[in-house]
C-alpha cells in the first residue's frame, strides 16, 4: 500500500462493509457514501451522474445492492469487479436499461427512475457509449459510422445524404482528433480493432455527450492498443470535461488510467477511492471468489 490508510467500516448499514481509502486532508464525514468522493480538483463541481442507494433486481435476484456513485466533470473513473459483480448492470442503470428496484439515479439532469414522456431519448443522447465489440456497422464507411452518432438527438435521418455539411465537418474533425482521419472513406470492417474503437469513440463524441460510459472498451485489444485507447478516453475526460466511467478487467490498466476506482463485489460497492491511493493489494478482495482469473491480477 501507499501511505494512505485503508479502513473497513460500514457505509450506512452494518451489512455494507466497504473499504474506503482516506487521506487526512480528504477525510469525509461518516454520513457520506464511498462512491461519492471525487478527486480534489473536481470536488467543487456538481456531479453529472449521481446514484444513491441503487438496487437492481432481475426477478427475485438482486444484482446491485445499495450502490452510490457520483461522476464529476473531467474525471475518469474505473469500474472494477469480478465477472458477474454488476459492472454492466450499473452502466445500464444509467441509461434506463436496468430494472431499478430502489434508489435514485440522476444523469445529466435526468431523473432516470422517473423519466418524463419522451425523455428516454434525450437521456440516451446525453450519454455516449463505447462497447467491447465496438458495435460499428462493418460495411459502412468510417465517416458514416461516426455520423450515425448525430442520429441520437436528431431523430430519423436518411443515412444516405441525410447529414448536413456541418455534421460532416464535425465528423471529420473528430476523426482527426482520434487519429484516423486518413481512414474516413474506408469501410469500418477494414480497420484494426484499435482503429475501430477510435471510430466508436468519435461516434460517441458526435452526439455531444455529457457523460461517456465505456463498458470493457479494451478487452478485445492487445495491451499497447489498450493503453492508447484509455489514454484517448482520459484525454477526452480532461479536455472536454466529460466524465468517463470505464469498466475494466485488468488492474494495472485501471491503476494507470483512472482518477478514481470503484469496485463492486456481488453487486455491492466494496472499494472506492482515488487511484493514487490504491494498489493491487487493496483491490485484491474484489476478486477473492475467482478461482483463476489471471487477467485480473497481471
Ligand atoms: N437480463 C438479465 N436477466 C437476469 N439476470 C441478469 C441479466 N443481466 C445480468 N444479469 C445477472 O446480473 C449479474 C451481474 O451481471 P453484469 O453483467 O452486470 O456483471 P458484470 O460485472 O458486468 O460481469 P462481466 O464482467 O462478466 O461482464 C449476473 O449474475 C448476471 O447473470
CATH topology of one domain: Rossmann fold
CATH architecture of one domain: 3-Layer(aba) Sandwich
Radius of gyration: 19 Å
**SS strand fraction:** 25-35%
| CATH level-four homologous superfamily name of one domain | P-loop containing nucleotide triphosphate hydrolases
Number of helical elements: 10
What is the distance, rounded to the nearest whole angstrom, between the alpha carbons of the first and last residues? 17 Å
Give start-end ranges of low-pLDDT stretches.
Answer: 1-18, 20-32, 292-298
Task: Tell me about the largest β-sheet.
Answer: 8 strands, mixed
Identify the CATH class of one domain.
Alpha Beta
Keywords: ATP-binding, Cell membrane, Membrane, Nucleotide-binding, Translocase, Transport
Organism: Microbacterium foliorum
Protein name: Phosphonate transport system ATP-binding protein
Pfam families: ABC_tran
Description:
Helix content is 29%, strand content 25%. By secondary structure, the chain is α/β, with parallel strands linked by helices. The chain has a domain at 15-136 and 210-291: P-loop containing nucleotide triphosphate hydrolases (Rossmann fold). The protein has an eight-stranded mixed sheet, sandwiched between helices. The protein has a four-stranded antiparallel sheet with strand order 4-3-6-7. The two termini are 17 Å apart. Bound molecules: adenosine-5'-triphosphate.
